[in-house]
Amino acid sequence: MIVFVDTSAFYAVLDRDDSNHPKAKKGWSELLREGAALLPTTMSCSRRRPCCNTGSASSGIRTAFCFAWHFREQGFEIKP
User: Fold this and answer.
1) Maximum Cα–Cα distance for the chain, whole Å?
2) Which of 33, 28, 38 has the alpha carbon at shortest distance from 67?
3) Could you tell me where the DSSP H helices lie in the chain?
4) How many angstroms separate the CA atoms of 26 and 45, rounded?
5) What residues contact 71, with CB distance under 8 A and at least 6 apart?
6) How far is 13 from 47, CA to CA, in rounded Å?
7) Cis peptide before 40 (omega within 30 of 0)
C-alpha cells in the first residue's frame, strides 16, 4: 500500500507538543508495521492542495496519513 504523508501528520509525529501527537505516533507505527510505502506529498506534487485530487486519480493512491480535512474531500481514506 502506498500512502500519501501530509505535512500535518508528519509534523504531529515529530512534535510532542502537537495535539495530534499521540494519534500520529500510533498511526505512524502502524503504517511502518504494515510495510506501507510512505510518499510525502511534497514529493508527489506541488504544494497546492488540488494536487491531491490529481495524485489520487492519476496514481491510484487512495490513502493519506494526515490531519488535514481536504484529503477526505478528495476521496482519500484517512489514517490514522
Assistant:
1) 36
2) 28
3) 7-14, 21-34, 41-44, 51-59, 70-73
4) 26
5) 4, 6, 52, 64, 78
6) 20
7) no
pLDDT value of residue 51: 47
- Joined grid coordinates for residue 21: 501527537
Pairing of strands 37-40, 63-65: unpaired
Burial class (CB within 10 angstroms; exposed 0-12, middle 13-18, buried 19+) of 12: buried
What is the Cα–Cα distance from 58 to 68, expressed in whole angstroms? Answer: 21
10-61 pLDDT per residue, tens: 999 999 999 999 999 999 999 999 999 998 876 444 444 444 444 554 568 8
3-state secondary structure of 40: strand
Which DSSP symbol is given to 62? -
